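User: I'm new to structure prediction. If I give you an amino acid sequence, what do you actually give back? Let's try with this one:
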Amino acid sequence: MVSTSTRGGAKLTQQEKSSILARNLRAMDAHDAEGLLMSVYTSVGEALRRVSTQTKVLLDVTSSMQPPTTNATSPIASPPKSPGLPPKSPEMFSLDAQLANGSGKANNPPRIAVQNTQQDVQEELSQALDMSSLLGQAVDTAQNQITRVLKVRNEQSIRLPQERFLRYFTLNRLFADECEAVSGRGSQALRGVINAQISGFVQVMGTSEAEKVAGILDGDDWNAKDFTEADEKVLQKVLGSMSRDPPEWTEGRKAIWEDVGYSPERASESAEVGAGDKAADTNGTSTPNTNGAVATGTKIASKPAYIDDNRFILVRSAIQLLPTLDHFLSLTATLPSMTSSISSALLEVLKTFNSRSTQLILGAGATRSAGLKNITTKHLALASQALSFVIALVPYMRECARRHLPSSGQTSILAEFDKTKRVYQDHQSGIHDKLVDIMTGTSQSHIKSLHTATYDKEGDDQEEEDGEVDSPSPFIETLTKQTLTFHRVLSRHLSEFDVGLIMRRIAEQYREQWVTAFKAIEVKNQSAKRRGTKRLVKDAETFRAKLEKLEGFREVGEEVAEVVRGKVGQERGKKNEGGEGKEGDEKGKG
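Assistant: Good question. You get back a string of structure tokens that encode the predicted 3D arrangement of the chain. For your 590 residues, that looks like this:
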């Protein structure tokens, strides 16, 4: 602990002494501050218990005291007087006796006067040794001084790591409970300071975690990572909190009398957490080829996470969101009265994750923050999976919060969870729209090639003689290859449901584009018409055959092929009609 010397303190004013003491208190690290409070609370608690015991002993003694003695020649002796208390003089009974019975009978006071005198003595002593008054003053004095100390260290306390703060909270709560048990009345001032610091801690933690999540997102390379056994344990705690608090949240912490350990390197546990995150960054990017599940078939697929029967291929930022969720939800078990504030802070972190990922992927910010060359289908698919993962977790977090919320304050917080889920779903819909737009734009560029295709180009004699076209047009080959690759990437990273949903939307776009485009094609060069129609048929059949296994594409392929076959049939019909007309003319001439 760094301390300011107070030598020569006799020459300092009281204000200067207080300032030095406050500076020394703020300079204490978490370990020393906890030790100081524990020592003070132990000493004060022991002193209060002794005061309570000694007061009870004195009350027992006074309750067994005998009344003051009297003699025949003197009036009743006055009871002892306590300083500061109004006299309860028995001489009034002597005066009453003299007035009622005459002066000669004053030396024989009635028995009732003696009894009343004894009661007055006991009442006066009881008032002087009133236990609740004495203990109340002692407790108030102790708590006023402790409250001043806690306020001085307020900024340091609300920035403690979670484990340290929970120990700090438990220590203060135990002291407040002991004071209340000894004095019999509540300690509102101390509890008020503690509750204010809990609110401050939750707010600081929320801000810190939001910044941490944003930083992890900025550094994410948007490659899939393995979901490890340690990650699975954290996930199971979050899922299990829907119905009960995991034992790790309530039973896994050390008792207040057990030291959590201290060394200069661990003076700030939050710094240790930051170092762990940095190490995770290194581990996450050092072996991208083995951990990243990308489009090529030569790389190993990442180990997925599972919620119920749903599979999730996750990036590092989504996996590292789990400990943050676990920290917030565990606080609802240890600080149930603050569940509303904790839930609000948790929701702010989720909003940060959503908004920042929007900027990085849909806004292409990752090309600057993570050095990506461009945002690919894989990046969009992995972003969608991260959103799906959070969407799947929201109902579990909502139920955990509901269990700890008071019935009067549930509606607004639970509605915020539902609203956050809808925001994530809207973001995911935007990503799916982007995926559809990518393939729609790709398809549209190939339609331009269709309109400029060389269907009017004349082939060689051998090709005419064979009557077959060896290969489809290059744009059809490219389109089908790109579509199949797109589907393969989605299948590796998205759920079967999402893949089917996206591919059906793309199929509808292909239907509108290619049916219209093939209908508009005409082969004008009569000498090349035979070859041109054959190539049209080949292109349509290739389109159908290669894409028909994709969901929603069988009907599209059949419709495109039917349009081309109909067009070829019409051309043949026209040719036959032209041939028959020519033959009839020749017969007429003959």
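You can read the tokens as a compact description of the fold. Here is one thing that stands out. The chain is about 70% helix and 0% strand.
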